[in-house]
Amino acid sequence: MPRRQGRSGGGDADELAELRERVISEAPEAGSNPLLTDAEEVEADGKVTFSRARRFSELPLSRRTLAGLARGKWEKMTDVQRATIGHALAGRDVLAAARTGSGKTLAFLVPLLELLWRERWSALDRLGGLVVSPTRELALQIFDVLRTLGQKHDLSAGLVIGGKDQQEEAARIAPMNILVATPGRLLHHIDQTAASRPLDASEATPGSLPPQADRLLDLGFKQTMAAILEELPRKRQTLLFSATQTRRVADLASLSLSEPQYISVHAASKTATPTRLQHHHMLIEPEQKLDVLWGFVRSHLQAKTICFLSSLHPAQVAFVHAAFSALRPGVSLLCLHGRQKQMKRLAVYTEFCAKKHAVLFATDVAARGLDFPTVQWVVQADAPEDVATYIHRTGRTARHTASGRALLLLSPSEKAFVDQLSAARIATQRLRPNKQQADAARAQAATAVRERADIKYTAQRALVSYVRSVKLQADKAVFDASSLPLQKLAESYGLAAAPRVRSLSGGGKAKEAAKN
Ligand SMILES: Nc1ncnc2c1ncn2[C@@H]1O[C@H](COP(=O)(O)OP(=O)(O)OP(=O)(O)O)[C@@H](O)[C@H]1O
Q: Position of motif Q motif (predicted)?
């Protein structure tokens, strides 16, 4: 988006008048779900509404936004876009749940730009729209989509994601019309930089749009979100999107929305996840896990894979990455976790996006919202904490119209998790480890550790962090750390003896995981 240009000139006046007229006269009925509206019924009724629209070009959108959509090659709307954009254009608050990869980003960015355009917001005005994202990488990705979509608008936009000099950041964002921010950093600015006043509650803030709502309330963000919402003007429009419907989303909705339109795009569908996503699981003993994982990596050299490991501490990710790299698998291995410096995290994110074949070992910092192109496999080597996290992790594949596969490694005692998935409309097929692969992979990781003193220390920390993460799983009926075969596990990590695992006091999990 060009920075600092004047207000839209008189040439836009006719377009503005027409758009304002159409937005009022063609808005879908409040409370209606445009996906369920029969086009013929609407015509017989004599009322033309956006409910009929299948393409962006059929909506009352500015030429500038349409040009941005054409630039991004976005023509036909996805279901969540059809279901929500009409309501949002009509100025209503929206609470929407739709599967991963279904196009939620455009569903909130298009109405945001349109709202500012119809309000004749320009670079001379101050903050008009706010997008809150749980992670820096997702903020960056949203910012990129905003840049493409908004390139013809005379609005300025900035990222508030931390990792840079705060004063410099405050000065940079002060004149911005739209901010894409992570909650912690945003609140920091609100609290600390009164002079730059990035959020000025005395001015109207028409759009306020926190996506990925469930994650925002995880990991200790709840208080931060509440504090941010306090600072926003009461008169505002808020759109809340998530891929899962949880109690936490309902909490955030009640904090932030006013008379929202409830849209659940895939509630009636047989599957809670994208239809082209195939789910698999394997039941294996914990001490076999590294071998099975190594076997998987070696037999999928032509694939792009994300492998999720324990998120409590990055040690597990760092260890598997180091041990497998030492074994030279014949495919690029990358790792992503919250303890990396921001520049490093962004570099890994960009590198993985660009690769055709690679394996990314990651904690849950990569689980939500990130749109890595063409990921074929999501492997969950360490179990997710709940079904919602499972949905977000596997949602990194099979995005939009692509297909993808997911593999979950569980120990036999954790089998009940499969029943929880099935109760949540996720059917997973059991796979058995391939014997040939397993024989070839046997004890390879352990050998790497024994041969490399530097990896041994990481292996010890990884094992401790893995055991602690199982201990801290909230669902005690499924996850039982006391049944873990510590000595056998240690041997599979290349260690002679099991390291001592301190018993844990509760409560620190959310804080620790938030960093990782
Ligand atoms: N109308 C469209 N036409 C073509 N491609 C689209 C359209 N809408 C979205 N996409 C593409 O689909 C992919 C997924 O979109 P997006 O990242 O917005 O999904 P999401 O619903 O936010 O996913 P998650 O729940 O994982 O955050 C992106 O690559 C995006 O460019």
A: 54-82
